[in-house]
Amino acid sequence: MKNQTLPGTVRPPAAAVSAGSAGRRARQLINPRTLTMVVVFVLLAIVFNVASGDIFLTPRNLSLLLRQASIVALVAAGVSILMIMGEIDLSIGSSVYLCGVVAASLQITHGLGVVPTIMLTIGVGILMGLWQGLWVVTVGVPSFIVTLAGLLAFRGIGYYATDAATLAPVSMAFSALSEGFVPVIASIVALVIAYLAAAAYILRRHRVSRSHEGETNTLRLASKLGALTVTVGLLIWVCAGFRGIPTALIWVAVIGIVLWVVMTRTVFGRNAYLTGSNREAAVLAGIPLARQLYVGFMLMGGLYGIAGVLMTARIGASTPTTGMYMELDAIAGAVIGGTALKGGIGTIPGAIVGAILLATIDNGMSILNISSFIQLVIKGLVLLFALAFDSFMSKRNGRG
Predict the structure, then answer these.
(1) In the chain, where are the structural domains located?
(2) What pLDDT band is residue 218 in, cutting at 50, 70 and 90?
(3) Where does 35-178+264-396 sit in CATH, by number?
(4) Cis geometry, peptide bond prior to residue 59 (ω within 30 degrees of 0)
(5) Residue partners of 332: CB distance under 8 A and separation at least 6
(6) Burial track 219-256 (b if 16+ CB lie within 10 A, e otherwise)
(7) In whole angstroms, what is the distance from residue 324 CA to residue 311 CA?
(8) Whole-structure pTM value
């Protein structure tokens, strides 16, 4: 994706200001847009529940929804990192499919155990990300074109290797990676601990910034704690009512926290925001641009592997349609969650919440028996409105 540059000569102080602004954006745990998405989710849940005759808001259905959303949430978080740096990835669905083929082949054909299968599949995904990064960074081909080629090539490789056939079945232990559950009591204890830890973090951030933001910061604190309380309370209700925490949700939580730490507490994360905000300023600030982009594509590649493992575990097989349109869901989720297409803005929690919101729409429409063809139309409109909103916000903030 094309990045903006400052007109004329860029002075180091300007780069420093951009870096500071990027750092402030990166340090936000939950921004107002993420909170808005939580409110939208609640409203959609109420509408779908009323329309479905109290079927939507049941522990069983919400547990299914979380499992459905987990894979898209992971790749949405990954593509948001690339988008923050001013790049894009259109190959996600095909890449996840090919990694799923690798995972199924290792399980079925070669008889490998769960852990070796996971590690080798992630390794293949990283190599795929490295391959695409090579064309973007070293050869200089725009990421839009490189990953569009990957969308075609990776699925073609998978079809050739399997003759477009389904590979099944994987072992029960492998399926449990996505379809298993943490026992109810352990789930509730874990959620309470997570709630206390998150609340303590929010309160500590509030004390640090209180002197600068005053009452506005207090209102933000209340909204964050309220959203956290509602979210964890809902999860406890779901877990207590249906078998505990889905293991797929554990993957999202762990990887989401890791990526959030990477983007808010590391040099890579701070540099990512400046790289996307102004690439020329990033170069003048001494950021190793090539290494930055390579790491971004390799992170995305690792998520191909994890998503491929979880997708194969979820359906117990690798099928020719695996990952179809996943790149659109991932990009839409990231944009809905506040990631700007032009780079420099976005959060990991926002991308994950955006993906869950899309899964909510999918799940609700399926319960209401809306035609799958109409569902595609609605998802297309959601993507269109998300991109239009991003364009509107860019112009409003003087970035268009």
Answers:
(1) 35-178+264-396, 181-245
(2) confident
(3) 1.10.3470
(4) no
(5) 354, 358, 379, 382, 383, 386
(6) ebbebbeebbeebbebbbebbeebbbbbbbbbbbbebb
(7) 12
(8) 0.87
